[in-house]
Amino acid sequence: MVRRTKEQAEATRTQLLDAAEALFCDKGVASTTLDMIARAAGVTRGAVYWHFKNKAEIFEAVCDRATSPMETMLDTLAAESGDDPLGALERQACGILQLVAGDARMRAVLEILFRGFDGGAEFAEYLAREEESKRNCRCEIESVLVAAAARGQLPPDTSPAKAAVAITAFVGGLMRDWVLDGDYDLADMAPYLTRVFFKGLASA
Amino acid sequence: MVRRTKEQAEATRTQLLDAAEALFCDKGVASTTLDMIARAAGVTRGAVYWHFKNKAEIFEAVCDRATSPMETMLDTLAAESGDDPLGALERQACGILQLVAGDARMRAVLEILFRGFDGGAEFAEYLAREEESKRNCRCEIESVLVAAAARGQLPPDTSPAKAAVAITAFVGGLMRDWVLDGDYDLADMAPYLTRVFFKGLASA
DNA sequence: TGATTTACAAACATTCTTGTATGTATCTAA
DNA sequence: TTAGATACATACAAGAATGTTTGTAAATCA
């Protein structure tokens, strides 16, 4: 078997990504060798180096394949604010938790990201972008909170910056705990969890 | 320089741990080589292998040196419950955040742990213990919440298990966000953050 | 004071992984 | 139909890190 058709080549690429995703999740990124990925996909390292430059490029491809739904969801936040900013935030938080809980691929990739690793400088770039988008997210949340405060949805002494820190920590913590360890039904609990939290935010 | 006195040997051991802590934090655990640690401590790998079995043992020593204050603090939780379990929980949460914010060494070690890595099987054992103690912590919190519910400090329909999930996620998320990225004053914000959260828990 | 152990340094062997170079059979386009 | 590009497999070179072994001078102990 040597030269495949275009569709076959695309199939092996997908198989490589699937294998990498599973191995990254199971053994960790640094402990996963390119040969392991190739073997798991039923090919050799030749195929790996044909489709990808190195392990970092595989990693990015694996991540991008899963995280796009979350990013599009975050993008809708600003648009949906409307005349109930705090309610929109709560629905967003709940929705993201349920999105993560419902998508097996996203759970796997988040497990890889949360479990963490260090592969040297090649990966630093991607992780920096990750941090950047996280800061952006908190910034957007803060602006929505400002709008909520303007409408009297928050106690007057509430600092939007502090509240934004609290929200991201809570949602992020829930995601991390569930992804790494959770044996409970996150999608089921999400409404209660977000409800309690936002009730605390709104109470004077 | 060959044979040192006992105190000198203990000093090089400490220097090795200091160097490892800084390098683990800066470059990551997997990217830090034993030679880098030795050079940073002003010795050679011979000293490293004299004091430690391998990198995993260094890692454990680095972690244990910092995490003990947190564990002792968690141990006091059950004892301090008294007749205001929910209040004790809130004070505990706030205290842990301020403890982390005030101890530079703990922040460094937590940064290592939160940033994550994968060094293979040797480290799995330690990380498993870490997970175990985390579960224990959540379990204790849950029992305190049961006591709080018995005293009417929680709405009657509140599930202690769910609330425990929320608390650990919130506190853990705050710690993680601040350690990895935080440019804000966590010790200063901790009382507000915990106050808001527990207000939400208590409100019917 | 001598023997032995300690606390390392230095050199060595080995393994593991990556990257690259080359080979090659097939697909594709002109 | 044939010339070139494609999609890999295979073989090779090289470095890097680990673990181990050996050497050794000073500290400790008897």
Task: Please give a structural write-up.
The structure is a homodimer of 204-residue chains. Chain A is mainly α and 204 residues long. The mean pLDDT of chain A is 93. The longest helix of chain A is centred in the middle third of the chain and has 30 residues. Chain A has 2 domains: 52 residues, Homeodomain-like (Arc Repressor Mutant, subunit A); 137 residues, Tetracycline Repressor, domain 2 (Orthogonal Bundle), CATH 1.10.357.10. The termini of chain A are far apart. In chain A, α5 runs antiparallel to α9. The interface between A and B is large, with 43 and 43 residues. Chain A binds a DNA duplex (30 and 30 nucleotides) through α1 and α3.
What is the gist of this entry?
2 copies of one chain form a homodimer. Helix content of chain A is 79%, strand content 0%.
Distance between the termini of chain A: 70 Å
Assigned CATH architecture of the largest domain in chain A: Orthogonal Bundle
Using the coordinates shown, work out and report the CATH topology of the largest domain in chain A.
Tetracycline Repressor, domain 2
Which percent band covers the strand fraction of chain A?
under 5%
Overall number of structural domains of chain A: 2
| Assigned CATH superfamily of the largest domain in chain A | Tetracycline Repressor, domain 2
Radius of gyration of chain A: 20 Å
> How many strands, what sense, and barrel or not for the largest sheet of chain A?
none
Pair with the most extensive interface?
Answer: A-B, 43 and 43 residues
Backbone structural class of chain A: mainly alpha
Bulk shape of chain A? elongated
Number of strands of chain A: 0
